[in-house]
Amino acid sequence: MLRLLFLCTVAFSLMANVLAAEKSTRSCRIIFLEAPDDAPEKIFLSDGVSMREVELPRMNLSDIYPLAEGDITLRMFSQKITDLAAVPTSAPSATIGADVKDFYLLVSTDPANKIAPVKMSVINANAANFKKGQMLWFNLTKNKVGGRVGERDLAMDANSKTILDAPSRKNGDYNVNLTFRMPGDERLFPLCETKWQFDDRTRNIYFIIPVAGSRSPRILGFPDYREEPKEAKEP
């Protein structure tokens, strides 16, 4: 009888967690920027309520992962942890405030961490701050970067971020022409001259990153398009 009661309690707890996840209005997408060749492609992510295995994509955003509400601490593990109340304090972690409902989890390598060889940074992507059609830029280099992105001017200092409004008034191709300046050198060097595609349903996040052995940085772009939830049909 006690064993049956225990099993029923566990089953109810698991069902409650599943229902909470389904009702959650908080979610994140993950990107593993500049991952080394031997970095893990999947890892276990805990929000303090549940744990799931998640992908660590290199060249695109992950699936959308629902997470618990309120103030939470995310932690990552190479191996699945069965007791969330006794997790190692040295596990990679990131604190999320209750007001952050949508965010990107930027993962980078940390081979010194024995629990999981990664570390996390949180990029707030709440709809009020980052709207459809806009572009979120991160310059992770020591260079100044600037130029034209469609109808918008881009001017970024070293190690900075900015949001650009929609680069075009209509969907389709638009011109991109960017240059950069190296520290202590006022000369302009070409970075990017091409055409990109605009879709007003999509948010885009861009990273300007240094390239080993090259003076020219690299631009990595990740579109974030999400299907609109379907309205329930009346019976």
Give me a quick take on this structure:
This protein is mainly beta and 235 residues long.
**Strand share of the residues?**
35-45%
Q: Categorize the overall geometry.
A: globular
Assign a percent range to the helix content.
under 10%
Count up the helices.
1
Output the radius of gyration.
Answer: 21 Å
Please mark out the parts with pLDDT under 50 across 5 or more consecutive residues, or reply none: 1-22
Let me know the number of strands: 16
Which structural class matches the secondary elements? mainly beta
Biggest pleated-sheet summary: 4 strands, mixed
Query: Average pLDDT value?
Result: 88
**Can you write the helix and strand succession as a string?**
HEEEEEEEEEEEEEEEE
Spatially, the strands of the biggest sheet line up as 4-1-7-8
Cα distance, first to last residue?
Answer: 42 Å
Characterization of this structure:
- The chain has 235 residues and is mostly beta strands.
- The chain is 9% helix and 43% strand.
- It has one helix at 2-23, and strands at residues 26-32, 42-46, 51-55, 65-67, 72-77, 93-96, 102-109, 118-124, 135-139, 144-149, 152-156, 160-164, 172-181, 189-198, 202-209, 218-225.
- The strands form four sheets. The protein has a four-stranded mixed beta sheet, with no helix packed on it.
- A hairpin with a 7-residue loop joins strand 13 (172-181) and strand 14.
- The radius of gyration is 21 Å and the shape is globular.
